[in-house]
Amino acid sequence: MNSVRVSNRDFDLVHTFDCGQCFRWNRQPDGSYTGVAGGMAVRLREEPDSVVIENCSESELASFWRRYLDLDRDYGEIKRAVSINDLMRAAVGYGGGIRILRQEFFEALISYIISQNNSIPNIKRVVERLCAAYGEPIETEWGTAYSFPAAERLAVLEERDFRALGAGFRDRYLVGASRLAAEGALDPEKLAAMPTAEARAELMKVKGVGNKVCDCVLLFSLGKFDLFPTDTWIRKVMEESFSAGSVSAAKSAGEELFGGYSGFAQQYLFYWRRERDKIK
């Protein structure tokens, strides 16, 4: 099995894969993570001075995984820039190994529609059922994995097919988004090239895509790092520490405070605030 090594500087597998941004990475008993992206299945494990990516060649690292894992970005500079007070220094210190993944647009869109009013464990279950039912099998040394289904594959489904997977009320939104993507009405390259406000307005035309879903898709797939996705956890911390009590106020305050680094700051804050509540 091919494997490659990459630097573990500012890169922690737990921080990156368990910070809430992705749903197809699973921690194994030995501490490694298995996941699927780009039609490839890999296993990542940490060593003292590196991260090893198993089932990956040098050419696959160069053509896909370096960008997907955001390996060429200077996260040290980002952490210095967002550490504007004691709160942010604590959040950065707690989740300093987070890297924002560059997920594929259609996968992010469908996954975040599923995420509405849903828990992370259940989101992961529904996404895995979707992939097992309609994705392509990928044989690995640790078992069979499945690619995320193409838009054209999901576009032929009906609401009942998504309900059978546990999607619930989101079924009609998944049908609509899949068909729009298959028709070419949602072009990630065009969205990526637009100013953020225009990309948001365009993506929010899709039924079932509200403010948070829209911001997460644009941040975690298209690199719109000036966005500050705001949910209950972020609203709480922004109310407690920045006197921004409503969702809209929290979002505006975050984007004003952190500018082009808003998405990074949001991830540090989200992970720190959520984990803090878990251990109370």
Describe this structure in words.
The protein has 280 residues and is an alpha+beta fold. The protein has three domains: 3-72, TATA-Binding Protein; 105-222, Hypothetical protein, domain 2 (Endonuclease III, domain 1); 232-278, Orthogonal Bundle (Endonuclease Iii, domain 2). The protein contains 15 helices and seven strands. The chain has helices spanning 13-17, 58-68, 75-82, 86-94, 105-114, 120-134, 151-154, 159-164, 171-183, 188-193, 196-203, 211-222, 232-242, 247-258, 262-278; strands at 3-6, 25-27, 33-37, 40-47, 50-54, 137-140, 143-146. The strands form two sheets. A five-stranded antiparallel beta sheet has the order 1-5-4-3-2. Strand 2 (25-27) and strand 3 form a beta hairpin. Helix 13 packs across helix 14. The longest helix has 17 residues, at 262-278. The mean pLDDT is 96.
Provide the descriptors you would attach to this structure in a database record.
15 helices, 280 residues, TATA-Binding Protein, single chain, 7 strands, 12% strand, alpha+beta, Endonuclease Iii, domain 2, Endonuclease III, domain 1, 3 domains
**Can you tell me the CATH architecture of the largest domain?**
Orthogonal Bundle
* CATH H-tier superfamily of the largest domain: Hypothetical protein, domain 2
List unreliable stretches of 5+ residues.
none
Give the helix proportion (percent range). 40-55%
Nearest-angstrom radius of gyration? Answer: 18 Å
The profile of the biggest β sheet is:
5 strands, antiparallel
CATH class of the largest domain: Mainly Alpha
In total, the number of domains comes to 3
Query: Mean pLDDT score, rounded?
Result: 96
Secondary-structure element sequence? Answer: EHEEEEHHHHHEEHHHHHHHHH
* 3D shape: globular
Tell me the structural class: alpha+beta
